[in-house]
Predict the structure.
Amino acid sequence: MAFYLGNHGNIRLRRGTASELGGFNTTVSPDDINTALNRIGVEDSVDNLVTGDRVVFSTTDNRRLDFIPDTNFGTLDFLVTQGDDQLITQSDNSFYNNGLTPDDFSAFVNVNAVGGLRLFRDFTSSINNERSAEIVIDPFTNEPIDVNLAVLDTRYNVLGNVFRYEFNTSRDAIDTTVLSDKYKQQYNAGLLSGSGRIECAFDYTTRETEEASIIMLQTIQRLDLGCAFDLALYLTDKDIVPDVDNIFYLTTGITTSTGISVEANGIVSCTIDFVTTGQIRLVIGKPDDYILKADDGRVVLDQSLNFLLQEVTD
C-alpha cells in the first residue's frame, strides 16, 4: 500500500473559464490612445482586469478596431494539447474556437496603476511588461468606438505558495417517501455540488508562468466580469514526481470569500473559499490546454479607461 505526501500535488488555475467570462461595454476615444507609452485607456479596467489576463475586444462599428493595426488580424496558428503529450497544430480565424470574428482581437494585457492597458501575445511577456514584445497600437480620429470587453483564458498555470487546500463534494438525496411508506426513502441521483478552501502564503510576484497568490484576492474583485475560474486540484502531479500519474479534480468555481492573516514575526497568509458552479470530474491524465504559437492573431481586451493617461514614464 502506497502513501502519498501533500507535496505530491498542487493547484493549477485558469483565470477565466473555458468559455468567456461576462463582459462589459465601453468606448475607446482618440484621447484614450497613448502612443508614447503604447497604452490604451479603458474605463473600469482597474475594477475588472488583472495583469496577465487574456482579453477580447469586439465591436460592431464599421471602422472595426481602428486602434489595432491591420497586420494583427489574420489566421491564427496554435497548438492544442489533447490528453497526455499529444499536440496538434490548428489554424483558425475563430481563435481557439471561441467564436471570435474577424472584428475581434485577443491579447494578454499588462495593467498599470491607473488602468492603462499594454497588449502582448503571451502571458509571460505581459507579466514581465517586456516592452520589446508589446503589440503596437495606432492613433485614430473621429468619433469614439464602442467596444465590448471580455476575459478569456487558454491555459492552466500553477498557483504558487499554496501550503494547504481542501475540497469537499456532496450529493443531495431526493426524498421519495410517500404517505403509505413506513420508512423514509431516499433516491441517490440528486444534484452534485462542491466547495473548498485554499490556504497559501501571500505573494504578489509572478515567476515565469507560476501564478502569484494575489490573483485569488484580485479575482473576487472583478466587479462587472464576475469571479469565475477553472480549477485543477492535483492529488498527485507527474511534473513533480515523475513515477506517479496525474490525478486531479477538474471543475469551475467562483470565489465566495477571501481572508488575510497578518501576525507579528509570522508569514502573511491568505485564505480563499470557493464553491463549484459546474461539472466536477475526477480525472487521470492532463487538463486540455491551449498554447499560442503564431504572431498574427487578434487580441480581445477586457479592460477600460475613458480618460487620457497622463504618466510620463511607465
